[in-house]
Design brief:
This protein is α/β, with parallel strands linked by helices. It is built from nine helices and 19 strands. Helix 2 packs across helix 3, helix 3 runs parallel beside helix 8 and helix 5 runs parallel beside helix 6. The chain is elongated and about 65 Å long. The protein starts with a strand and ends in a 12-residue tail after the last helix.
């Protein structure tokens, strides 16, 4: 559905995937249900004042973000690929529950991206009086269209815009299910702040390192597992997870700066996983800070058996990065090397 068409040079594609921003209350059940994109846009007539060429499309069918799967990321990536030459920027409307996973996944899947992909949504449906959806939606469009004096996109990367902050998508995590400040980027500053004006932090924005064309990679390998340590964790709990057939990767959520209890069975289990070619990466349960496995003996024991350092990655970025690399490379040593390197702005790797 085309909202408007005029001679303006800037064209934006809006991709509606579902989520609270496009929902309405069912008068019979009281539950929130999706309604179509035409009604969503009708609630934001301000769109027509931009002067851009704005077109829209819908993920078929729209879904609650709790139902998000890698196949949906692939569909989004393909839509962007198909419209890449036509549009200057892209805005994805998405539910908040898995928004950070989608943003992280697309940051890896859209290789050589040189245009803005801004993901946003809302905590209150856009048709309701106190909605946060209008500001999020309109500012995302403005950011997706923003160019510098040379005509280059100001933000050529995958981002989340929410409650006046533009954040790198693969650095972002959902932290609030009730307030408007639903997302936070703990380990990397905001790329822009929107007040009376939008103030861009140009030195933080990731610039394209190549002039190569966009490549889209969608073959994500989901044979991964997440293990979160806790006091009293039992050997049989871990063994049930690590003995999953065809398991290829494990993300270990440890304490503090990457520490784990000094239990012989735990260390030997991790050693066996690493020796058998399963990628094991250490990230912290803390939202802020980085893994430094050489700091304490409780972290060094993991490093010594082959556990990799995930530094300051979010769980969303680490899961999607692991799926991406395992899907792309057959050589496990290449996967291990790249898991410890910053490939899309997702981590600050320490020397």
């Amino acid at each position: 559905m085309q909202i408007m068409k005029n001679p303006a040079e800037i064209s934006i594609l809006i991709l509606y995937t579902g989520g609270t921003i496009g929902m309405t209350h069912n008068p019979l059940t009281g539950a929130l249900e999706s309604f179509d994109l035409e009604h969503l846009c009708a609630n934001v007539p301000e769109m027509n004042h931009f002067g851009f060429n704005i077109e829209t499309t819908t993920l078929n069918p729209p879904i609650d973000s709790s139902d998000m799967e890698p196949e949906h990321w692939g569909k989004m990536a393909k839509i962007i690929e198909e419209g890449y030459e036509k549009y200057d920027g892209f805005v994805i409307l998405h539910g908040t529950d898995t928004m950070a996973y989608t943003a992280s996944a697309l940051s890896f899947m859209l290789e050589n991206l040189q245009k803005p992909v801004i993901i946003t949504g809302s905590q209150i449906p856009i048709g309701q009086l106190r909605t946060d959806g209008k500001e999020n939606f309109l500012t995302s469009i403005e950011i997706a269209a923003a160019k510098d004096k040379n005509g280059n996109p100001l933000v050529p990367e995958v981002c989340i815009y929410f409650e006046s902050k533009l954040m790198r998508g693969n650095r972002t995590t959902k932290i609030n299910s009730e307030g408007f400040n639903a997302f936070r980027s703990f380990n990397f500053p905001a790329l822009a702040n929107a007040g009376i004006d939008i103030k861009y932090e140009s030195h933080l924005i990731r610039k394209p390192k190549t002039d190569e064309p966009l490549r889209v990679f969608t073959e994500m390998d989901t044979r991964v597992a997440v293990i979160s340590l806790f006091p009293g964790i039992r050997e049989e709990v871990l063994s049930q997870i690590v003995n999953i057939p065809n398991l290829r990767g494990v993300i270990l959520k440890t304490y503090g700066s990457g520490n784990a209890p000094r239990k012989e069975w735990l260390v030997s289990t991790l050693a066996n996983l690493c020796a058998n070619g399963i990628v094991v990466v250490n990230i912290s349960q803390c939202s802020k800070g980085s893994v430094e496995m050489r700091r304490y003996e409780t972290g060094l024991q993991l490093l010594n058996v082959g556990v990799l350092n995930g530094y300051d990655c979010t769980i969303e970025a680490m899961i999607t990065k692991m799926m991406y690399l395992l899907g792309k490379y057959k050589d496990i040593e290449t996967v291990k090397r790249l898991m410890c390197e910053d490939i899309a702005g997702e981590m600050t790797a320490l020397s």
